[in-house]
What we know:
Blueprint lengths: L2 H11 L4 E2 L5 E2 L7 E7 L5 E5 L6 E3 L1 H4 L7 E9 L5 E10 L4 E9 L2 E6 L8 E3 L11 E9 L2 E2 L7 E2 L2 E10 L5 H9 L8 H9 L13 E2 L7 E3 L8 E8 L2 E9 L10 H9 L3 E3 L2 E3 L4 H7 L7 E11 L5 E12 L3 E3 H9 L4 H5 L4 H21 L9 E5 L5 E6 L4 H23 L6 E3 L5 H12 L13 H10 L6 H10 L5 E3 L23 H14 L9 H31 L6 E10 L2 E6 L4 E6 L8 E4 L4 E4 L5 E3 L3 E10 L4 E6 L1
Helix pairs in contact: 3-15, 4-5, 9-10
Amino acid sequence: MHAFTRRIAAMARDGQILRNRKGALLVAQKLDLIAGRIIGHPDGFGFLAVDGGGDDIYIAHPEMRKVMHGDRVMVRPAGHDRRGRKEGVIVEVTDRAHQHLVGRLHRDRDFLLVTPSDRRISHEILVAQKDSAGAKSGQVVVVKILSHPMAELDGRNQYSPPVGRIDEILGNASDPGMEIEIALRKHDLPFEFSAKATAQAARYPQQVQATDSRGREDLRSLPLVTIDGETARDFDDAVFCRRDGRGYRLLVAIADVSHYVHHDDSLDKESRDRGTSVYFPRRVIPMLPESLSNGLCSLNPDVDRLCMVCDMSVSTAGVIKSYRFYPAVMRSHARLTYTRVAAVLADGACPEALALAPLMPHLLNLQEVYRALTKAREKRGAIDFETQETQFIFDAAGAVERIERVQRNDAHRLIEECMLAANVCAANLLQENDHAALFRVHEGPTPEKLKALREFLKGFGLQLTGGEKPQPPDYANLLASVKHRPDTGLLQTVLLRSLRQAVYSPENAGHFGLAYEAYAHFTSPIRRYPDLLVHRAIKAVLENRRYTAANWTEIGRHCSETERRADEATREVDAWLKCHYVRNRVGDEFAGTITAATAFGIFVSLDSLFVEGLVHVSELGSDYFQYDATRHQLLGERTAQRYRIGDKLNVRVARVDLESCRIDLVLA
């Protein structure tokens, strides 16, 4: 028996250890073991993300041979490395993160090896010829892990690589859409519905039945309209506004997905597992089968649809004086786009406005209530960060023709303000009735981040008001004061990074960025699972009962993770497409803007292409550059040459690596 195992067994007899719910050994504190999850690095080393927070622990390359990125382990502290970082030794793997991996198959002499697409996994998986399923060298495959990597725990230099069997051949790396196939498997994104969920969806009729409309308010004669992007196919929300005395009556009607997807049925389990729809360029992985997401639940024009309505009374100052939620049946009077609505609101005499003549009074009312809500937004001090969104334009062959900036217009903002108002009402209703649900929580800066932010601002002669607990208006006022400075991009980026990431939680801590005391997601139940839960909770309040979604804390954590998972997958696909787009531009020069500074170099966005690449620190000249994390810059020791976020410079495309989705730049 291994020495460590004997020690554990002895401690078990002495009652010094317990087991957690997964059966993993929880070792007594006298062993000073620390539990956490491994975060791998492409260069072979890694870190332990400690359970419950705290500083990460550095895991050296030899120790990383025992594990893969994502594995859960027990680590014994082992002093500090030469850079002063806490270092640890892995003594036990409590949970393996991967049973399958996606990667590229290649041959090395007599061996078949799969190199994982996830570069945080530095192991290559050994595949026997009999387990290759006929895959050819260079193809992208899915490999099942038969045995995980092993390295001796007592320090002997022995290593056994992971061994696998090819379960699926995806094709060649250059095949159209392969980047999405890889992302789906790399991030464990569910993309096929179970037979039970598919059968349940198939049982629903294509149209709303008369029995479904009973007990609902009839809004079919009300000219509700949907306003979305040109390529949208799933319509969650419809809006209507009319003047009401000295204010407005604003209706936000949301698809009633909860009428069809019930707690813990097959569709609910699928939706919960996915957490969100995932929107890739040219392909959507929906949270619900398309017969529901694009059909029965989608607020398509000129057909009856079931909905949940937030019916609000809004003052001319943008204050929501009262609101009411109720189930209804509606019929969208038009499927409008942001571009079209923005055009008619800007010019009421244009041909588009004449074509929409019956709806124009309602659209003008929506514009008025939007302006009123915007006034209230500014008054409460909501933070308005300007973000740059882009979209891919593909040619007939499916290749990226160009990348364009998405221009936000008043129609985008109009819908956004209407949705925010409905979401706030949903949160208030649940709070007032003390009903559990998931809130969208966005907290302000931690003391550590606040201290770093103040140090950074001091170097610019700026100050964030608010003392130890700044509020949203403090951030908003500072942003307004630097709006016309040439370094406003840098200042906005640093202010944004000082805030914590938004999450779903049953514990309401308010929404710092939007300056709301309570905020919940109600308006997108077709594509977000938390919204579906909020709908169920609201219905429970209306029916004077309680809805319980098992463990609210756990489901909030899960929904936050699935949101991040979807974001990571879409970012990687976007990065691959951008690399593919730029690969024929090696040697070309572009004007660029620094978007990030790190110890190993600067990231530069090419202004005309909306593509980002890395200028490695070794390409910045013969000087030695020090990284200043507080000021987000690289500074030359001898020349005092400075590179920081927002700086403009000219660069040349030096290399493009599709495998690692990396674009290398050099100074022009």
